[in-house]
Design a protein that fits this description.
This protein has about 160 residues and is mostly helical. The chain contains seven helices and no strands.
Length: about 160
């Protein structure tokens, strides 16, 4: 049972990285396919440019939450004289980030539920436009889960003490 839980945790912790990589691969493949079609066959694929744009959006948003694993976001160092001040500022920073992600999720849901967004379709692929908001909500929710995990992580407490 312990091995199964470790595998599930590994899969869940790398899920956003997996999706980001898949969309990067898809985007690269479609661009190379479009180059081949234009310069070798003389034709063009009408749908590939739109699908590349959608793939870029999905890749970027899933990449946002994937960067939390390695703490690759821009950060500002703080060298306070008191250990508790470092803990307080790190928790405050994480709390502000959490509020930011909650607001993004709220406004994405609010925007998706507008009648004209629910009916609107993309030009070439005729995909519903609200599909574009799926990675925004998923990535922000996943980032929020990572922030909550960081808030309760014991290493933060032990670093400050």
């Amino acid at each position: 049972m312990g091995l199964a839980m470790i595998k599930i945790k590994t899969v869940l912790s790398n899920l956003d990285l997996f999706f980001s990589s898949i969309f990067l691969f898809l985007m690269s493949f479609l661009v190379l396919l479009q180059i081949y079609m234009r310069y070798v066959t003389g034709g063009s694929l009408a749908w590939s440019e739109e699908l590349v744009s959608w793939s870029f959006l999905y890749m970027a948003w899933f990449g946002v939450s994937a960067v939390y694993m390695d703490e690759g976001h821009i950060s500002v160092g703080y060298s306070g004289s008191k250990p508790w001040s470092k803990l307080l500022l790190s928790r405050l920073s994480l709390l502000i980030q959490a509020v930011f992600y909650v607001l993004i999720i709220y406004y994405a849901f609010t925007y998706i539920n507008k009648p004209y967004i629910l009916r609107q379709k993309s030009v070439v692929l005729s995909l519903l436009i609200w599909y574009l908001y799926i990675p925004v909500i998923a990535s922000c929710f996943y980032s929020l889960c990572r922030i909550i995990a960081k808030i309760f992580k014991k290493e933060i407490i032990s670093e400050a003490v």
